[in-house]
Amino acid sequence: MGRLCSVINCSTRNSKVTPESITLFSVPKDDYLKSQWINVVCAVNNRETNVKFVCAKHFKTEDIKRTYYGSENLGSEVNNADVE
Length: 84
Description:
Helices cover about 25% and strands about 5% of the residues. With about 80 residues, it is of the alpha+beta class. It has a two-stranded antiparallel sheet with strand order 1-2. Mean pLDDT is about 75; it is low at about 75-84.
């Protein structure tokens, strides 16, 4: 099975309804953030849920950082360049 948003009633779970490409974010590795994600998704789903991915539709636009942090030896002009 492919990657799906863990929010049960999310329209991105049905590719026939939403054919456009939607970014899916993996649950953070940080234990605190991971528990926050799990708590929120379980509350929204109104049941225990194995949370693996959450799609971009469930985040505020300003909360999504589309930034590339390059290697130090590439120079500071590349390190914090926005990705378009």
